[in-house]
Amino acid sequence: MKTVRLFWGLLLILFTLGSASLLAEEVKVEAEAPPQEKKENLLPGVALSQGITEITGVAISPLLGVSTVGAWHYWNAPSAARGSLPWYCQPWAWGTGLAVLALCFLKDSLGTAVPGVLKKPFDMVELFENKASALVASGAFVPLVANQMAAQLKAEHPEGLAVPAGDILGGTLAFIDLSWIMVPAAVIAFLLVWVCSHAINVLIILSPFSTVDAMLKLARTALLALVGVVYAFAPWIAAALCLAIIALAAFLAPAAMRLAIFGARYASDILMPWRGRKRATPETPHAFTLGRLAGLPPRTGGRLILLEDGTPAFRYRRWCVLDERIIPMPDGLRHVEKGILSPTLIHQPSPEEEGRTLLIFLPRYRGHEASIAGTLKLHGTRDHAIVRGFSAVRAWLGEMLRRGKKPLEGT
């Protein structure tokens, strides 16, 4: 519970610092600008450093970022101008976002008092909420901030905002507006940071411990708070920090994207089991790599198939759309292990050696373990250690409850 309180305390600090720093920046701009150049409805983020910070902060937590910026701009705009503000600055938009955040606070506060498994369906709903918020922010918020950044640069350096293109395009177009470059670059930077932040949501639904969930969210919120605190004292240092975060996100993006795809399919099978059961194909089941299989990175998606010579193999496409490749399963014992949420493929080089998990199947194949093992000529099925523990407890309770009853005939 203390961890959750710390998490939401940092969230409140972020709200306060972000609003205060944005307000201070706006007042400073208005104080220095001539009267004829003042604008009542400037969006937050007109400065280059502020725009970079906003895009990075919103990418880390889209719903929180958009709701905060919208609420700040609404309350600091004149009453007569509030009706002409962008959609996300209207009370129905940021009010809905804050209400959803309040529900997330309630879920996380109560989640520490219940087993993590009982909280997972709500975490999976939050996973899809994060995707929807990112979709809206990348299409309707980030381009506005990028355009304001371009407009600011144009106002300060009108001669340097355009790139001569007459020689390249044969004179048909004299200049290329820098906003044509800044908007796609801003959207790409947003998506790179968001997909890495979204990986935390996937790790939360995979973790069986509520404390680990709270620590993951605390780490993400601490990063948000760091960006806000640094910006409050030194905007350009905050911009440099955000550029470093974007560069690191670009390096981690491929692994984060694989994790995001895996998390989306895994969560959709649990939240909509009827849909998964209709699409289950035990003869060629969907699977994701967990360990290094012939050099493949973890969470590579594909199917387990049976080759003509009777060898099970993993079939996948590079980058999901490129050429198809097939990797035979290593020799040894191959069992399908029954898990609590989904089965896995266990490989043992020999009976004396310890097995390791190679593949994890989607939850839709829970209950199809025997069919998968038989169709793909594996070496049978076995129970997960937790399932075996539950079975042992159930058998022990059965033995205890049978004591005192009339003995069976012949005993």
TrEMBL record:
The keyword Signal applies. Residues 1-24 form the signal peptide. Keywords: Membrane, Signal, Transmembrane, Transmembrane helix. It comes from the Bacteria. The chain crosses the membrane at residues 180-206, 218-238. This is Uncharacterized protein. It comes from Luteolibacter luteus. The lineage of its organism: Bacteria, Pseudomonadati, Verrucomicrobiota, Verrucomicrobiia, Verrucomicrobiales.
